[in-house]
Design brief:
Elements: E1 3-6, H1 10-21, E2 26-29, H2 32-41, E3 43-47, E4 52-54, E5 57-59, E6 70-73, H3 80-87, E7 96-99, H4 106-111, E8 121-132, E9 135-148, H5 156-168, E10 171-174, H6 178-199, H7 203-208, H8 210-229, H9 236-246, H10 256-262, H11 273-283, H12 288-308
Parallel strand pairs: 1-2, 1-6, 2-5, 3-9, 6-7, 9-10
Antiparallel strand pairs: 3-4, 8-9
Helix pairs in contact: 1-5, 6-8, 6-10, 6-12, 8-9, 8-11, 11-12
Length: 309
């Protein structure tokens, strides 16, 4: 199985690195200092489960996808459309594209640009970041990938992907309820990320402040309302389970969206709370808390994007 990893950050670096370590032909598509560092010194992953160092092929040329059997898309959700347009004319009919970024509609967006038969849906769970170009720091959570066909049916390619992931040695699961799985993670991440950016507070502060905790729960309730109206199997009981997880997480935890905004980088705001706001408008569902969070942070997001792009 020839594997292409698009994005060599905390997600792509870890999972792609494990696949390369297992002996699979693995090509990273990266750029800038990360590209040069991996070319010269390989990819170093410092992990709470054990450090490792690999020397995969790395390039900045999307032509690499011409030989791919499996493409792991490990960029931010706001980058999906542009990358899909780049790889669309190069994509072999045999290839499978698996998106692993946060967000509720990644597979749908990919399928609107790529041949839908090439796309499966997925998510990952990992707490990791780029320590420096070519160096990944995995510092929390047992890494896991959950993946499935968009129609929730079993398939041979899911079996083959699971064999590869098992050989790579990370936790994984082939799901026949992948939309629910994606929305459960989305419920968790979208309920706390932008609120963290808005309050400039770690998770422990937000969950222990009575007013902020109430707003987090209201944010989650609006997400569930939108999701269930879109036909997703998600309900208010899932909020309780979500907050049981939130209450167990390290007090000083911050989320990637929050860190991006606080560091003046483009974020996934539009794909998180912005998505809920837009879908609420379409469905005629009121989302006042998500509205406030999104529209309060949007000027900052627009300023960063106008300066960078």
């Amino acid at each position: 199985m020839n594997i292409v990893i698009i994005g060599a950050g905390g997600v792509g670096g870890y999972f792609g690195g494990k696949l390369a370590l297992a002996g699979y032909p693995t090509t990273f598509i990266a750029r800038g200092k990360t590209l040069q560092e991996i070319k010269q010194n390989g990819l170093q992953v410092n992990s709470i489960l054990g450090d490792f160092h690999v020397y995969p092929r790395v390039t900045d040329n999307y032509e690499a996808v011409k030989e791919a059997d499996l493409i792991l898309l490990c960029v931010k959700s706001w980058q999906i459309d542009a990358i899909a347009r780049e790889i669309n004319p190069l994509l072999p009919s045999k290839a499978t594209v698996l998106p692993l970024q946060n967000g509720a509609d990644n597979a749908d967006r990919l399928s609107s640009i790529l041949p839908p038969s090439c796309v499966i849906a997925g998510l990952c769970r990992i707490v990791s970041k780029i320590e420096s170009p070519g160096v990944i720091n995995h510092f929390g959570y047992e890494p896991e990938i959950v993946f499935g066909e968009v129609n929730n049916k079993p398939s041979l390619r899911l079996e083959l992907i699971k064999v590869a992931f098992d050989k790579a040695g990370f936790k994984n699961r082939s799901s026949n309820t992948i939309q629910r799985d994606i929305w459960l993670k989305f419920l968790f991440i979208a309920s706390i990320s932008a609120m963290g950016a808005l309050t400039r507070s770690v998770l422990g502060v937000m969950r222990e402040d009575k007013f902020l905790r109430k707003k987090l729960i209201e944010t989650a309730s609006e997400i569930v309302s939108v999701g269930s109206n879109l036909g997703i199997d998600i309900n208010e009981k899932d909020i309780e389970s979500c907050f049981e997880i939130i209450d167990r997480i390290n007090y000083d935890t911050t989320m990637s969206l929050q860190r991006d905004m606080m560091e003046g980088k483009p974020s996934e705001l539009d794909n998180f709370n912005g998505y809920i706001v837009r879908q609420g408008d379409i469905l005629g569902i009121e989302t006042p808390v998500n509205d406030f969070i999104y529209y309060s942070l949007r000027p900052m997001e627009e300023k960063v994007r106008s300066e960078r792009f």
